[in-house]
Amino acid sequence: MTLPADYKQLVETYGDGIFDETIWLLVPGSAYDDCDLHAQAAERDEILADLWEFEDKPAGLNEAGAKVLPWAFEEGTGAFLYWLVRPGQHPDDWTVLYNEGRGPLWEHHDMGCMAFLLAVLTGTAETEYFGYLYEVLKPTVHRFAPADETLGETGQ
What we know:
By secondary structure, the protein is α+β, with helices and mostly antiparallel strands.
């Protein structure tokens, strides 16, 4: 599957790891299952298929062939950031869906993953989530910690 150019830039620049102790970037082929895009996509597909037997899908997924693909997750919350993938749409046009993970709420953002990540990290995102970054953590300097530094070098 072809992935968006802005995401590829993020992966080439940072690799797998965590931004501001909050947002983990998923990367294809990560040594860590929790950070591996392919492993997480398979797991999320299964979890969401079970969930959607009892709950409604987000509005953007009502189109035939539309699906979600995870690209990041929020530390310690069960929340995921997904791309909304529509049939025939170029990956650079995929937009972001946030799911709170432990509840039914989905939030759509009409932008790509890099723009959304930047908005969250700079406090300009129009979102019900991530406010604690500025209320609790109050980062004055933004930091990226590679997965090896955070999780250890053994992987898995």
